[in-house]
User: What shape does this take?
Amino acid sequence: MATITSDLGEMARIEGLLAALGPVSGKRIIDIGCGEGVIARGLAAAGALVEGYDPFIEPSETTRVGDGWYRLSKARADAIPEPDGSADAVLFVFSLHHVPQPTMGAALAEARRLLKPGGVLCVAEPLAEGPAHYVMAPYHDETEVRANATLALATHATPAFDKETILFFSEGRSFAGFDDYATQAIGNMRYNDYTEADVLSTEVRGRFEAMAAEHGTCFEQRVRVNLFA
Assistant: This one.
């Protein structure tokens, strides 16, 4: 196993993924844990043909974006209804840590099954550090589940591939103020286990204001991308 590590600097999430993946035009990509399809849409705009899967969404018809397209379907990470060797790339973007720990290994094995010879597995995970994590911790501390995802990669993905590249980039998230932050966080409750009252607590507001005073209202989130080939 050859491992290469590099830092891409500051960039938006889709830019970081495209920098890791390289040209995607015409490539068939499976996006596991796709949510509402933000990443799938961005990849399609770059010319990719994207099948997104998530257990918590309603299916959508094929949507064309530029030279590419994307379609969203309902499925668990360890049971993707696609044939063996059908994808040029399989992605988990901020989603592997949401897979229940007992099935993370099965989900990664499923991703390996889906890849064509020479295909790549791309796993992007936010690091449990920095202003965004500090503000979120009282109502949604993901330190443990993100550590579980890292362990699952080392246990189930690293031994299954010939090459691993680890990339880092920093994604900035801007907020007009605490109310804007809270609105965005509350909008994500569908996929997470917290309440509106948790987000609007005095502690969270205090943490936000402290980070805003120190860093401004653009909070940097460090992201690690593990690329397996």
Observations:
- The chain is about 35% helix and 30% strand.
- The chain has one domain: 2-228.
- The beta strands are 2-10, 28-32, 49-54, 63-65, 68-74, 87-93, 115-126, 163-174, 218-228.
- The CA atoms of residues 134 and 177 lie 16 Å apart.
